[in-house]
Specification:
Elements (H helix, E strand, L loop, with lengths): L12 H21 L10 H12 L9 H4 L2 H16 L1 H11 L6 H10 L8 H31 L1 H16 L19 H15 L2 H15 L1 H6 L7 H25 L11 H14 L15 H13 L12 H16 L5 E2 L2 E2 L2 H28 L4 H12 L14 H16 L1 H8 L21
Antiparallel strand pairs: 1-2
Helix pairs in contact: 1-2, 1-4, 1-6, 1-19, 2-4, 2-18, 4-8, 5-7, 7-8, 7-9, 8-9, 9-13, 10-12, 12-13, 12-14, 14-17, 15-16, 16-17, 16-18, 17-18
């Protein structure tokens, strides 16, 4: 008689994180494929694409959610967006707390790596704080949306639209149930524009920045701290995230305003105030949201290229946004300045950035760019569209943005899978994806040191 040895498969933290998102995507795809969730039959590829876009909080769609899905289908879609925005780790931890199970050390390590925390203590409190803050902000956003949607659609439908779009905006998903034109009908509506922009920035700025600001409000009220100023008592991460966010929003707004000012298909017919608001919305939404108030296919080529840059950068770490992150770009820029000046250390706001941080930033940047280029070339081979339109689409996917020039619904099946892979890579991160599906950490690299040899550069 043969005796089989049972081997337990042990997944690393990165593999568990990647598998968690993948599992939710597949389950979501199956649910959205069911006839009860659809007004008319849908291909499984499109259902899976929609689920991937929702869980990865991207917003690219091969179907129009408003007309394709039933109320149940839209509820499933909203749940997937919320899970994707909060993260599988946060949602799983919440349910474990609800059923009364203790959080294991491995689960704590997963939370630590997901949110880049320094200590293993206070994990559950951290997750519960994230959930509470998320629901409060989404609730406030829904109230503001309700002032527009209830008079327009009636009480019940208005409440439903308000809740859906508040969650979608905060989670930076950019998925709407209004129709094929997103928020184009509200391009001149300050309430919808400002509420959406604030929710997008709030979700994309990162939970660590939130909590840093709220934790320091009390200290700021003290006489001693008030002399220093609120900004000075924030952590380095918060200072960089807030500074970069402000710079990118202002730079993007000015760029789009200048480029689209006389474009009759976008901002050309708007009043000056509406032009500024439209340019600001475009600047904010390219930072991984996906809603739009002007047709993306009608943007000038220069605006499309700038949008690609902003989409690739994305939001800040430990939030709902995608991209390579504002802190990564800031750190690499400061490193380049350091090299040019001939200084030894990369410094920021009076602090030295460790070399390990810089290496990680370079890895994230290069791996994201490499995956983007491979995906862009793959789609270019399959599709006959212009290269800039394809680059816009693939950058939107890996940056988990969701903006499209109109190419997504017309994609061939093979291209849809390429875009799905890009969205997935953008949501879990290129380094996590590499460690989960291929590369392995080498523990010996921490203890051995090979002879140094300079390499010619430049």
């Amino acid at each position: 008689m043969f005796k089989w040895k049972e081997k337990s498969v042990r997944l690393s933290t990165m593999q568990m994180l990647a598998a968690g998102f993948l599992l939710v995507i597949v389950i979501g795809g199956i649910l959205l494929w069911l006839p009860v969730c659809n007004q008319e039959p849908i291909a499984f590829t499109d259902a899976l694409f929609t689920s991937t876009s929702a869980v990865c909080v991207t917003g690219l769609m091969t179907v129009v959610p408003a007309t394709q899905f039933t109320l149940l289908g839209k509820v499933v879609l909203l749940v997937l967006i919320q899970i994707g925005g909060l993260g599988v780790v946060a949602v799983s931890t919440f349910f474990l707390v609800v059923i009364g199970r203790k959080i294991t050390v491995k689960e704590r390590v997963m939370i630590q790596e997901t949110y880049n925390m320094e200590s293993l203590s206070g994990m559950v409190k951290w997750i519960l704080r994230i959930l509470k803050g998320t629901f409060v902000v989404e609730g406030i956003g829904a109230i503001f949306f309700a002032f527009q949607f209830i008079p327009e659609y009636g009480f019940l439908k208005g409440i439903w639209y308000s809740v859906f779009h508040s969650i979608s905006a905060f989670c930076n998903a950019g998925i709407d149930i209004l129709g094929a034109d997103s928020f184009a009908a509200y391009a001149r509506n300050p309430l919808i524009n400002l509420t959406t922009m604030i929710l997008i920035v709030a979700g994309g700025i990162g939970y660590t920045v939130w909590f840093d600001i709220t934790d320091n409000i009390r200290n700021f009220r003290k006489k001693g701290e008030r002399r220093r100023g609120m900004f000075k008592i924030l952590t380095l991460n918060s200072k960089v995230a807030l500074t970069m966010t402000a710079i990118l929003i202002v730079t993007g707004t000015v760029s789009f305003l200048f480029l689209e000012f006389s474009n009759p298909d976008t901002l050309g017919e708007f009043s000056f105030g509406d032009k500024v608001m439209g340019a600001a919305f475009q600047s904010v939404t390219t930072r991984t949201a996906g809603f739009f108030t002007v047709p993306q296919g009608d943007l000038r080529e220069e605006s499309v290229f700038i949008s690609c840059l902003l989409m690739f950068i994305g939001g800040s770490p430990a939030g709902t946004a995608g991209g390579v992150k504002t802190t990564t770009i800031a750190m690499l820029f400061l490193t380049a300045v350091t090299v040019v000046k001939g200084n030894k250390d990369t410094e920021c706001f009076g602090r030295r950035i460790p070399e390990e941080n810089i290496r990680t930033g370079i890895s994230v940047m290069l791996m994201s760019f490499t995956i983007l280029m491979i995906g862009t070339i793959a789609v270019s081979v399959i599709e006959s569209a212009g290269f800039l339109d394809i680059l816009f689409e693939t950058t939107s996917a890996i940056g988990t943005v969701g903006l499209s020039t109109g190419l997504t619904p017309a994609l061939h099946t093979a291209s849809k899978f390429v875009i799905m892979i890009l969205m997935y890579a953008g949501r879990i991160g290129p380094v996590t994806m590499a460690l989960a599906f291929g590369l392995k950490r080498n523990p010996m690299s921490q203890v051995r040191q090979l002879p140094a040899k300079r390499l010619m550069i430049g």
